Amino acid sequence: MGDAAGEVIASPSVPDSSKDSVPDVPDEYFRTSRPDIVGSNVPDAPFPIKLSGPVQHGFGRGSKDLGCPTANLPDDSLPPMIDAAKTGVYYGYAQVTPSEGTSSSLSDQDICVLPMVMSFGWNPFYKNERMTAEIHIMHEFKSDFYGYDMKALVLGYIRPELHYTSREALIEDIEFDKKVALKSMARPGYEKYMSDPFFTV
Question: Taking the mean position of all CA atoms in its chain, how far away is CA 38?
Answer without folding.
Answer: 14
